[in-house]
Amino acid sequence: MKRITQATDILGVLERGDLNHDLTGEIESVLKALRDLAPPKGKVKGSVGLTLNFQVEGQSVEIEASITSKVPKRQRGRSFYFLTQEGSLSTEHPQQSDMFNGPRAVASSDH
């Protein structure tokens, strides 16, 4: 009778080795993502989880596995624009004229 008693042996045979391969790939993916997200002198955290569900019926055991992972979202930059009366975006403040379009006509003040 061949017995499987070590967790590493169980992981190696589940799904004919595919689980071990997929788990290894997920760990590598998370580590690469964390490396890319880590600030030069800061920390970033992620995780890889393995859940094994067991179902026993008589003398047999069925094992179902699932792999989960979590990495922080990549921080995105921010952009600032102005909103026009028409609802469009503008790089210029709508109440300020463009000083590079040349001189404006001066309103006459006839008193």
Describe this protein with a few key phrases.
24% helix; alpha+beta; 4 strands; 2 helices; two-stranded antiparallel ribbon; 111 residues
Count the beta strands.
4
Low-confidence stretches: none
Q: What's the gyration radius in Å?
A: 31 Å
Which bin fits the share of residues in helices?
A: 10-25%
The largest sheet, given as strand count, sense and whether it forms a barrel, is: 2 strands, antiparallel
Instruction: Sum up the overall morphology in one term.
Output: rod-shaped
The helix count comes to 2
Structural class: alpha+beta
For the largest beta sheet, what order do the strands appear in spatially?
Answer: 1-2
β content, as a range? 15-25%
Give the integer mean of the pLDDT values: 87
SSE string, helix = H, strand = E? HHEEEE
**Span from first to last CA?**
113 Å
Explain this structure to me?
By secondary structure, this protein is α+β, with helices and mostly antiparallel strands. The chain has a domain at 7-70. Helix content is 24%, strand content 23%. The protein contains 2 helices and 4 strands. The chain has helices spanning 7-13, 18-37, and strands at 47-57, 60-70, 82-83, 89-90. It has a two-stranded antiparallel sheet. It starts with 6 loop residues before the first helix and ends in a 21-residue tail after the last strand. 1% of the residues are buried. The model has no long low-confidence stretch (mean pLDDT 87).
